[in-house]
Design goal:
This protein has one domain. Helices cover 43% and strands 15% of the residues. By secondary structure, it is α+β, with helices and mostly antiparallel strands. The strands form 2 sheets. It has a two-stranded antiparallel sheet with strand order 1-2. It has a two-stranded antiparallel sheet with strand order 3-4.
Length: 81
Amino acid sequence: MTGTTVTGASIDKAHPTNMAFPVANEHGVQHGMTLRDYFAGQALAGYFAAPNTPHRNACGKDAAEYLYIMADAMMKARAQK
């Protein structure tokens, strides 16, 4: 699946402009972390840094799903810009 839907907005996670730190090889193919994964990682850092974070008791799969919901919301806001 190359895209996901966040409250009606389609997000193409594989699009070149959605790479966090793109590095092109000799064929012009970009590799690197997706911007969505970067946003989820940043949300993860904040999640553990703030003691009163919503869903603070979530762990494992539940926490990961929550963080990717946050990342998808950031991708949607970015697309509306």
